[in-house]
Amino acid sequence: YAPGFGDRRKAMLQDISILTGGSVISEELAMDLEKSSLEDLGQAKRVVISKEATTIIGGNGDKISIKNRIQQIRQEVHEATSDYDKEKLNERLAKLSGGVAVLKVGAATEVEMKEKKARVEDALHATRAAVEEGVVPGGGVALVRVAEK
Questions:
Q1: Rounded distance, CA 133 to CA 104, Å?
Q2: 96 and 15 in contact (C-beta within 8 Å)?
Q3: pLDDT of residue 102
Q4: What is the CATH number of the domain that holds 53?
Q5: How far is CA 30 from CA 14, 24, 34, 126, in A?
Q6: CA-CA distance, 49 to 55, in Å (whole number)?
Q7: CA atoms of 124 and 122, how far apart (whole Å)
Q8: pLDDT at 93
Q9: What is the mean pLDDT of residues 51-78?
Q10: Could you say which residues form the signal peptide (predicted)?
């Protein structure tokens, strides 16, 4: 199934098509799957699919088209009135902007590798939480600043 619902789904499919250089095949655009060709398919260096997410790495879309799409979404964020719409637009913006990193963890033994992998996952979760929730200076600086006010 395609991600999202309604108009948001259409926009996300358009994002994917621009990122990969493909075309959205839909009945409302008068396109038929049986009449589509290989030129309608996009390309990517790598696609990772899991139960919960699909990650497209190295999409083969036109760089100028991707930049234009990013600018268009930024404009939509600026014009959006509801926090929910802004949040969803910012999610699309982050996905299209290429905020993906591939971390490779190696070790001499399997036990050591599992330990390193657990540490990397902890760091990743801490970083995600910091980005979503924000951070304050450490060492009690935040408490001192609050106490001064």
A1: 27
A2: yes
A3: 67
A4: 3.50.7.10
A5: 15, 11, 12, 46
A6: 6
A7: 5
A8: 87
A9: 89
A10: none
Backbone φ and ψ of 61, nearest 5° = -75, 165
Task: Give the integer Cα–Cα distance in Å for 106 and 117.
Answer: 9
Q: Note the pLDDT of residue 100.
A: 61
Residue 25 maps to a domain: yes
For residue 90, the model assigns a pLDDT of 86
What's the rounded mean pLDDT across residues 15-34? 82
Distance from C-alpha of 15 to C-alpha of 9, rounded to nearest angstrom: 10
For residues 50 and 10, state if they share a domain: yes
95's CB contacts (< 8 A; 6+ apart) are 15
Single-letter amino acid, residue 110:
E
CB 73 within 8 A of CB 96: yes
User: In this predicted model, what pLDDT tens digit does every residue of 95-139 receive, in sequence order?
Assistant: 888 666 667 788 899 999 999 989 998 998 888 788 777 777 777
For 37, which DSSP code? -
97 CB-near residues (< 8 Å, 6+ apart) = 70
